[in-house]
Each structure stands twice: as C-alpha cells, then as structure tokens.
Amino acid sequence: MAAWGSRHADCLTRYILESFARIRCRMMTVHEAADVACPSQLRHLWHSLWSRTPRASFRQTPEFLEASLTAICEERHRYSSLDPKIVTEWQGPTCSERNPLQPMAERWRFLIVSAWQRPIGIMPLRERLVRRALGTFRVLSVPQSPWGSLPGSVGPHPATTLAAVARHLVEHDHSWDILELPEVVAQGVEPNRVPLVFESSGRPVFQRPCRELLGLELPATFSQFWANRDSAARQWWRELDALQSLRSSEKFVRFRPEGASCGDTLRDWGFLKQLDRIVDLQAGTSHGPLSQKMFECLQETHPLAVDAGAADVSVLFHDSRLTAFAYNFHCRSRVETALMLADPQAPQARERLIGLMLRDEIARGDAWHLFLPNSVPGAALDRRLWGPIELRETTVTHDRKTSLRSRFMHWLDGDRRITSASCC
Fold it and tell me: Which pLDDT tens digit goes with each residue over 38-57?
C-alpha cells in the first residue's frame, strides 16, 4: 500500500511539473525584431534589460557590440570570402543600402523572448555565409570581439532566454545550417548548459575549445587574498613590496568615472594619451601589432564605456615615469581586464600593477576579476603567483541537418562530439 502511494505521489508530481512546463511554454514567445539592422535601434529596450542582467558586462551593451564589430580578431575568421553573386542572391540588392557599414555576407539578427507579453531577454546573433571546401554554409553565432564572444543573452533570465531561443531556432527556423553558441567552463570540465538545450533535437552536438580566460575571486580583505595563496607566493609579494618602496617613488592611480547616470562623464582621452608610449614600446615584438590594434579599439569604445560607468583605467608610475597600465571594464563589482601592457625595461612592473589593482578592488568591494582573452599580450600571467581559476570559452556547435558532409567538416576542424552522458 505504501509503495502504491509513493508511485501515485511520483506520478502526481510529474503531472504537475509537466503542466507547469506546458503553461510556461504557452506563455513564453520568441520573435525576431523586424527591420532592425543594428543593436542601437533597440537601445531603449536593450538597456532596460541590461540593467537587470545578472553578472552583466559592458561587452553586452549595444554600444560595445557596434564599436567592436570592426575589430574582430582574425583568428575567428576561419572561412574565406564569398562570391559577391552568392551574397546578392542571399541578402538582396538593398541590403548594403540599408546598412552600408555592415560587412558583406553578414547581418544582425535579434531574437526577443517575452513572457506574458513582456520582454525578458534579447539574444543578438550574427548570421553569415561561409564557404568551405565542402560547400557554402549559413552559420549563426553570437557576436565576437577581440575579447571573446558575447558573455550571454541580455535580460534578467539569461538561462531561460537561451533555452527559448535555441528551441525556437531548432524547431521553427530553417534558414541556418550551423548554430554556434559559447559556454564558459572551468578547465577540464565539459560544457553542459548549452548541450542540454539541444538534447531534445536528437542530433549530435560538438564542442571546440577556443579561448582561455583567467579569473580571480576576491575575498573581503587583501590579507585574506594572500592567505589563500601558498607561502612562496606570499614571500614573493612581500619581497616585491619591500623592493619597490626602497628603490623608487611609486604611485598607483585609478581612473573610474561613475558614468552618465551620476553625471560623471569625463570622456577626454587626453588623460590617457600618455599610454601611447607604453604601446609604442611594444613595437618590434611579436605582440606589437595586436597590442596596437586592441589599443585603437579601446580608443573607440572609451567614450561609450565612460558613459556606461564601465571605464576603469589603472596606471603605475615609478619616479614620475609611467611603467605599466591596465584598461579594464567594470560593472557591478566585476572587473574585466581588456588590455594590460608594461614597459619592457621595467621588470616586474606588470605583476606589481596587478597586485595594486587587486588590493584597490578589494577595498572598493569588488568581488571578481577576469582577464579576458588577448588582454595580456606577449607574456603569460604568472599562475603560480596569482593562482587564477582557469576558464575555457568553448564553442558548442549544432547542425540543423546531420550529414556525412557535416561530420567530415567537424573532423577537419578537430571538433569533439559531446555525448549525452557528459550533458547530465
């Protein structure tokens, strides 16, 4: 009798959950914004949702997406250009007239998720025609920048938005061939959030590790930060701290305006002009061109970051001479380093700047510091000293149709299939 009651309770629970799921699906809709060629056309709704996005980043704003589009890293372009005739057939003759600055064979797509007829999320996507040795494909992916993929959908419920968009694309949109969505996971951990979304389609899902990110969780005090490191790291920092105080007059300066909402919008790049010298010192090195390109991109996005309250620049002086700087994006107690460079003639200046930045962030109440891809050109971060959390930005790939051609393409690209067991 007890066993029957237990089974009856399980069936009732399952029925209730399935009923709620059906109600939620009926109340949730996904539609594509029509006649919208760029993120700025959705600015009002976008910022309303961005202000409620958990763990929001400046890299999710429409201003950043538009400004950084022209600075996409070349290693992300794994495909060759297309025949203009193919582009014309796909986009139509008026596409370039609507948005002449938009690259050929690419266009924006904006999927808006609503619950009870109220928008709860936006998923911006880039659709592009690509040509491989095996044919031409329509690839749908999130926007890219020199600092990695879009961190996630915009809105207070990013997981729900992602699931709704993916379900809509798989079940109702047949205009694409390949769907690529990123997932950031710890080193050695399989992606599971995005593969679970695709699990219902019954088609194979593949992963491709792309970029590395390094994260530092910040405790309540700087002493606690070093208490979490080993004795060798603590001793190294004490020696560096004593050495700098004896040899030179050191000065650490941080520039973090509060943004347009607080009336603090000093956009003058003149304050940062002296950073040019550090960038110029990288000339002749293997990372010199990349450093220059990323610095130019930051010059374009700087006024926008200031207005958003996301600009965060730290500089280190020795005897009134600039020796290192870091340009960061700051948003709601989270700091993301976009570019860090040091004078090659000033040994340990970069590590010293990192330590002073972290001490200042802990004092300000920040909780997380992330080194974005390409943010430290030319030299790897000292992992033994800082003990960062190693993260991997992984691209999860889903094919609309499974074919021998698609499987062969994944084999050529070195993609690895994700089994259903790893999704659980």
Answer: 999 999 999 999 999 999 99
Q: In 271-335, which residue ranges form alpha helices assigned H by DSSP?
A: 275-280, 288-307
DSSP 69: G
Reference 161, options 52, 36, 16, 17; nearest CA is 52
Question: Is 213 within 8 Å of 370 (Cβ atoms)?
Answer: yes
Whole-number Å distance between alpha carbons of 313 and 409:
43
Question: Which CA distances in Å does 86 have to 91, 97, 130, 223?
Answer: 9, 17, 10, 61
What are the tens digits of pLDDT across the range 131-167?
877 778 899 999 988 898 999 999 999 999 998 999 8
- As a whole number of angstroms, the distance between CA 279 and CA 185 comes to 32
DSSP secondary structure string, 185-216? Answer: EETTPPP-HHHHHHGGG-S-EEEEEEEEEEEE
Q: What is the 3-state secondary structure (H, E, C) of 380-399?
A: CCCHHHHCCEEEEEEEEEEE
Q: 79-121 pLDDT, tens per residue?
A: 334 444 433 433 433 343 334 444 446 899 999 999 988 999 9
Element (H, E) at 141: strand 135-141
